[in-house]
Design a protein that fits this description.
The protein has helices at about 15-30, 40-50, 60-75, 105-110, and strands at about 10, 30-35, 55, 80-85. With about 110 residues, it is an alpha/beta fold.
C-alpha cells in the first residue's frame, strides 16, 4: 500500500457508506482524517474510530466550507487531500418543494449558496 504519512485528508460525507470506507483506506495509508458532514453523531463516531476529527459541514454552504478549511489549517497546518464525496438523496414530493429536487445534487456537487 502507498504511504500518506504526514498528510491530512478531508472526506466530505465520510460519516456513512462509501465516504466512511474511503476515510478508512486513507487512514490505513497513514493520513490524518477529517470527516466533514451533517450527521454529527455518526461523524463523531467515525472520527473517533479513526483517531480523527469531525467537522459539521454542509457542502452546499460556502461559509461552512470556508470555516472547515480554516479549522483544518488551525489544527493541522495543512490540507493535502480533499475527497469530495458528499451527496444527497432527495426524499420529497416534487410539488411541495420550493427548490425542485433535481437541483439538490447540483447544489451539493457544483455550487454553494
Amino acid at each position: 500500500m502507498f504511504s500518506l504519512e504526514n498528510r491530512v485528508a478531508l472526506v466530505t460525507g465520510g460519516e456513512h457508506g462509501i465516504g466512511k470506507g474511503i476515510a478508512g483506506v486513507l487512514h490505513k495509508a497513514g493520513a490524518k482524517i477529517v470527516i466533514g458532514g451533517i450527521d454529527e453523531a455518526a461523524g463523531q463516531q467515525v472520527a473517533k474510530e479513526l483517531g480523527g476529527l469531525f467537522l459539521k459541514l454542509d457542502v452546499t454552504r460556502q461559509s461552512d466550507c470556508q470555516s472547515a478549511i480554516a479549522e483544518i489549517e488551525k489544527q493541522f497546518g495543512q490540507l493535502d487531500i480533499l475527497c469530495s464525496n458528499a451527496g444527497i438523496f432527495p426524499q420529497a414530493n416534487w410539488g411541495s418543494c420550493a427548490v425542485p429536487p433535481w437541483k439538490w445534487p447540483i447544489a451539493a456537487s457544483l455550487s454553494m449558496r
